[in-house]
Amino acid sequence: MTRLKTLLTSAALFAALGVTGAMAEVTVLGWPGGPEEAGLRKAADAYNATAADADKVKLIFFNRDGFFDKLAADLAAGSTDFDVNLLATYALGRYAPFMDPITLPDASKATFPEKVLATMQYDGKQYGIPTDLSLHFMYYRTDLIEKLLSDADWKAKYGEISEKYLGKKLEPKDPDAWTWEDWMATALFFTKSINSDSPTRYGTVLQMKNLLFNMMVWHSVARAQGGDWMNDKGEIVVDSPAYRTALEIYKKLYDAGTSPKDSTTYEFAESNAAFGAGQVATMVQWNAAFGDLDNKEKTPAVAGKIGTVAPPTGPAGRFTHIHGLGLGINKASKNKEGAVRFLNWLGTPDAMEIYAKAGGSPALSDAVVAKVSAERPDLVKLGQFAGAYGFVMHGGTAAKALQVYELQAKEFTAYWAGDKSLDEALAATKAGMADLLKP
After folding, report:
1. How far is the C-alpha of 353 from the C-alpha of 358, rounded, in Å?
2. Per-residue pLDDT tens for 324-374?
3. Nearest Cα residue to 376 out of 32, 33, 38, 28
4. Portion of the chain with pLDDT greater than 70, in percent
5. What is the 3-state secondary structure (H, E, C) of the chain?
6. Which of 63, 78, 213, 357 could form a disulfide with 332 if both were Cys (CB 3.0 to 4.6 A apart)?
7. Nearest to 31 by CA among 322, 396, 325
């Protein structure tokens, strides 16, 4: 009798508050801490302003560290804590067994190019709406580079510094024509401890924290040298001249002081903060950083003075790591109908316009990107660079690809920090990858 009274009392309370058992929020687990979160929050606010109560979206976020392992564990355990969750190209095979495929409405097909929709496809099925395309830009201060290209004294000093540190006398070039050596010379020139006339304290800022995403940034250097994870026979090929050269590029720049000494603890946010403060001349960084860095309210020191080009050219060519982020449906969701309605809306041109203007980085069709190109010119380059320079390491979509990134982050950060020799780091990486990627 007591339990019955309690249930009746609770029911009366919910009724008084206008809540019924049939109503439920759509809980969305997004990617935390960056422009993707800012874009999703704005889009969710717009959706909630007109959605029925049962469809309203509630956003939740895990910590960035360990995000993908926690998500995999929750999906495998049949968690109902979220209805919609983050997806990434490099983790589709890991998550697909615990998610529902989706059917794209016509609006989504008009919003995104087919190649972009394909970043959320696995085993012939669509598993998500592609909210962001991630690749790398070479960011640089336009005001500083313009002076370097026109000032005779600066040119002469540049040649002296490059000869001293790189063993060859180089001349300044337009960033779009840089090789990795040109970038190194530029980073050295704009480092105050090396060149007392430099207006910036550091020539670059390196993301060297023991974190898998930092490996993705560095891979654009490695691939340009000819580096890969495996060859066509499935053999691990990281202990190669290409990998050694790419690792040494970071090591030389770090040891020379071109990047802050605590760069071994840096990732996306810390690098943006350094560049945004006006203390850094160049930076290899995710395209998603542009929206905040070019915002006069958020980063007045550099906004309006930022140039972006594709990463420099190496012996093997010009490359940028590429992957997609998106949102799909948890198979254990208790509100799949609401989840479908939200994703159908999210894939419309209007929703993606809101998302992009708030900082997200969707790769959009020409008709849709034209609506935001004045505010987000970086999104135009996003599609161009992806098509011309995008790559995925051989094995980069394997079920244990994330563990490979984590292994490399552990070993390569140890080398950069001076805790391991190059030979030791590469040997441990090769052995670990052979175990993770074995057939």
Report:
1. 9
2. 999 999 999 999 999 999 999 999 999 999 999 999 999 999 899 999 999
3. 38
4. 95
5. CHHHHHHHHHHHHHHHCCCCCCCCCEEEEECCCCHHHHHHHHHHHHHHCCCCHHHCEEEEECCCCCHHHHHHHHHHCCCCCCCEEEEEHHHHHHHHHHEECCCCCHHHHHHCCHHHHHHHEECCEECCEEEEEECEEEEEEHHHHHHHHHCHHHHHHHHHHHHHHHCCCCCCCCHHHCEHHHHHHHHHHCCCCCCCCCCCCECCCCCCCCCHHHHHHHHHHHHHCCCCCECCCCCECCCCHHHHHHHHHHHHHHHCCCCCHHHHHCCHHHHHHHHHCCCECEEEEEHHHHHHHCCCCCCCCCCCCEEEECCCEECCEECEECEEEEEEEECCCCCHHHHHHHHHHHCCHHHHHHHHHCCCCCCCCHHHHCCCCCCCCHHHHHHHHHHHHEECCCCCCCCCHHHHHHHHHHHHHHHHCCCCCHHHHHHHHHHHHHHHCCC
6. 78
7. 325
Q: Which residues pair with 60 in a beta bridge?
A: 29
- 275 and 406 in a single domain? The answer is yes
DSSP β-bridge partners for residue 218? none
Number of domains in the chain: 2
Quote the CA–CA distance of 183 and 148 in Å, as a whole number.
13
Is the overall model pTM greater than 0.90, yes or no?
no
Question: CA 93, CA 88: separation in Å to the nearest integer?
Answer: 10
- Whether residues 262 and 308 fall in one domain: yes
What tokens appear for 284 in the block?
């290899």
| Backbone dihedral angles phi then psi of residue 240, each to the nearest 5 degrees | -140, 165
Residues 84 and 144 placed together within one structural domain of the fold: no
